[in-house]
Amino acid sequence: MQRRLAAILAADIAGFSRLVDVDEEGTLAAQRGHRVELIDPLLEQYNGRIANTAGDSILIEFPSAVEAVRMAIAMQDGLISRNTNVPADHRIAYRIGINIGDVVAEETDLLGDGVNVAARLEALAPPGGIIISRSVRDHVRDRLQLILADLGEVGVKNIARPVRAFQVLREGERAVLVLKPGRRFWPVFATAMAFLLAASIGAVYWRFYDSDFKPANAANFAYPLPDRPSIAVLPFQNIADDQDQTYFADGLTEDIVTDISKISGIFVVAHGSTIQYKTRSVQVSQVAEELGVRYILGGSVRRAGDNLRITAQLADAVKGEQIWAERYDRKIDDVFAIQSEITRQVVRALAVTLKASENDRVFQKYVTNIDTYDAFLRARATVDAPTRENIEQGEALFRRVIELDPAFAGGYAGLSFNHSVKARFGYGTSPADDARQALELAQKAIEMDKNFAWSYIALAGAHLANGNHDAAVDAARQAIIIQPSGYESNLFMGFYLNFAGESALALKYLGIASELSRNDTVRGLDFLGIAYFTDGRYEECERAWTNRFVRLGTPAYPHAHVFLAACQSLLGEQERATATVARFLGMLPEFRMSRWLWVNNYKLPEHRQRLFDAAIKAGIPE
């Protein structure tokens, strides 16, 4: 092994897996073209040597930091030119990190801290961006004319001391780069006039702090703009020192989405579809184009003891301008008032007139005790994926919510939903007892607060667990009345309608939920696959389940495989059905249809029998 000092450039294609999923052959061909026609000539021009390549990443060694930075800029500028006529969702963009430090040469490969730091800086860069370490900055500052954004000291995994990082800004860029959770910094922008800006933490590339920014391109919108004001609420970023507070920022985001979804005059994208932007570097216009909305709301949360700072910004992506921004420095108990104020500002900015009933529902706060709210957010985050372990843990957490505030409907609604899931999945010792408790708790939640939508979704689940399908639909309909633009209210309306024998109407509501979501979700595809089966649309049923397995992974509970195998059997695709059953029984060898409680969710005997017979024919043991 040999040690030496070297400048290291680490580059990686942003969103490579997504690009390959969209167009594998095209992406790989474009990658090879960029390498041969752009990167290799630049290597020769700037004296770079490729030390390692792995899939979509490249590690390059330079004898000079100046040459490394020059190549990085030339490479990013070259990619911009090469992507000019490429559709936005097919463009290849590299993240680049550059460091100068001690490396260990092992044959042609390089190891050591110098390499590790470059790789970590690359991971923090936005697509098309360049981040350099302080050592690189010191080597190039008097030799290259650069505009740098000081990102402060960044903690680097497996490196004892933090690394000072800088983003290389090219002409026209005055955006703030924000880092992944766990990093704290105060960036300084070198423009015509230097200014300080408190930056949030996450991986979102904001342009809110310019008076205007590049407008979204109507030709690039993935969905047509709705016929009413449309908005996406990006995840509020947790910038507290304690990263365990991330759930608090997530809960704040979800609550704002919930409040806006109660307004019939506004189309709001579901919270689950914007979570992706916690770990992606994006511009406002890009979010608008990908989600098909005009307005983007985002911000940050810092919670320290009893003190709370929340920033919020609202942008009109079509016009390319910020239309409202505010910072709130309050005590933690004021979080509910801040949520209401942000929603009011959105309503005012979008010039929406509220109905009388909507005004009461939107600005009514269900809980006033911060400890109760805190416990409720933790519980809600825990049960989002309904595995046996999560449901059991969630039960204890919702009981804690009730202990903290016996007058808060959320604790009873959450515990009710938990019991109905236990009854339907057979997680508990007595499904009948779980069904009974689910109903009692849901009724208690509604007694506490008749305007809390989740109480009615929980009540619908309790009625389904007790075999009262029509009552389940009536309860879900009440949730729609309270939250007409709510993703979950429409989603569960479709779910309960399906088991009540109204599969065609169920598909209508599931379509509304899908439009609100913009992205496929586990529940969305699950409910859609079930409804297609009930409606006798077996090809679409198979497509929904296959899409769910390929894109979102194999579920931890069995019904997906049962429905997939059953619809394949009814299509006459016995070979595919046999393969599905084999994969399923490999996970749950003791599974028997006669002991599967899920089939009992159907109101109509013919639906239960059709599913049972098709599953047996597919090869699932009786």
Q: Could you characterize the architecture of this molecule?
A:
Strands 1, 2, 3, 4, 5, 6, 7, 8, 9 and 10 form a 10-stranded mixed sheet that branches. The protein has helices spanning 16-22, 24-45, 65-82, 113-124, 134-140, 246-261, 271-274, 284-291, 335-349, 356-362, 370-382, 388-404, 409-425, 431-448, 453-465, 469-482, 487-499, 503-517, 522-534, 538-552, 559-570, 574-587, 605-618; strands at residues 2-13, 49-54, 57-62, 94-106, 109-111, 130-133, 147-154, 163-169, 188-189, 195-196, 230-233, 237-238, 267-268, 295-304, 307-316, 321-331. The termini are far apart. The chain has 622 residues and is an alpha+beta fold. Mean pLDDT is 80; it is low at 172-212 and 355-361. It is globular, with a radius of gyration of 27 Å. Helix 1 (16-22) packs across helix 2, helix 15 packs antiparallel against helix 16 and helix 17 packs parallel to helix 19 (522-534). It folds into 4 domains: 2-164, Alpha-Beta Plaits, CATH 3.30.70; 218-362, Rossmann fold; 366-484, Alpha Horseshoe (Serine Threonine Protein Phosphatase 5, Tetratricopeptide repeat); 486-622, Alpha Horseshoe (Serine Threonine Protein Phosphatase 5, Tetratricopeptide repeat), CATH 1.25.40.
